[in-house]
Amino acid sequence: MKRKLLDYLRCPSCAGGIVLASVAVVEGAEIIQGELGCEGCAHRFPIIRGVPRFAAAENLQPDKAATAENFGWQWQHFTHRDELYADQFLGWIAPVVPGFFQDKIVLEGGCGKGRHTSLAASWGARDVIGVDLSAAVETAFAATRELENVHIVQADIYHLPFARVFDYAFSVGVLHHLPDPRSGFRSLASKVKDGGHISAWVYGAENNEWITRGINPLREKFSSRLNHRALLQLSKLPAALVYLATKLVYGPLNRSGTGSAFASHLFYNDYLSAISKFGWREQHTIVFDHLVAPTSHYIRREDFEEWWHDIQATEVVIGWHNKNSWRGFGRINKEL
Length: 336
Ligand SMILES: C[S@@+](CC[C@H](N)C(=O)[O-])C[C@H]1O[C@@H](n2cnc3c(N)ncnc32)[C@H](O)[C@@H]1O
Ligand SMILES: [Zn+2]
Fold this sequence. Notes:
four-stranded antiparallel sheet; 11 strands; binds zinc ion
């Protein structure tokens, strides 16, 4: 944990100031082991392996604990980087462009392995704070510790340990895994200051009936409950089918002049064409990610629009991404 993070922290219980209570191990700019304390309510929060910990697995509700357990394993196993992440990220947060990050104080809700945290930092953000509930923070910390403008924090998106100081908050692929996505979104938005902005990307209900009716019962009752190593092996079979389809059919057809008109009629073409550029490792991650989640909501456009009304955002831009998901961007105008 870098000392600069203290400027942004507030107690998640009482909103009191957070101070460094003790430091046991330091490596360069990072406090590796120590303790934070609240000036208001005397709560203590440990710093373990370089990450301040505001959420302990043993205090979580069972559904949140299961989600954290499964994604924690996922992001400690799939730690690779891919040069295609930047374009994919920009697709999820459009109309935001790299220059938008310049000098901004940025909060990421659910950073996973930190792939977007580091992109935001490389695009000139003053500071980026990546928050995740799970052990994914171990991977995110290892991947970003050398970046002086990145901070990784373990916390629950519903109880964020920050002051309302952010110019921009974003959350990609996280809110639909929460027990109540809308209030998670509101909690994230509540940390953005007046005139700041927020982006969110979520699974759509529309065009995903084959998942909600066909795959979800399997995911809920079977695959998300499987031993992680067993799911890792089992998920190679559907991943291989996706890989063959994207490499032999969707990718080549969509890239060819005459084939692309035909491809537009294929099942789930926009999405499968978009992921066709990725190699085996990333496609396996994507399939595993879908099967491992204990909770996944598929959100209708009208419900997603409600989220933005609820936070009284303005300049809202909602986009239909790959014909299977919703992305939104808007301006925050008042304290929530
Ligand atoms: C599908 S992953 C997406 C990670 C990252 N945004 C990305 O795109 O690479 C969902 C992440 O949300 C995190 N998450 C789930 N519930 C959370 C909560 N209540 N608070 C914070 N993070 C949470 C998980 O631990 C997981 O890392
Ligand atoms: Zn407190």
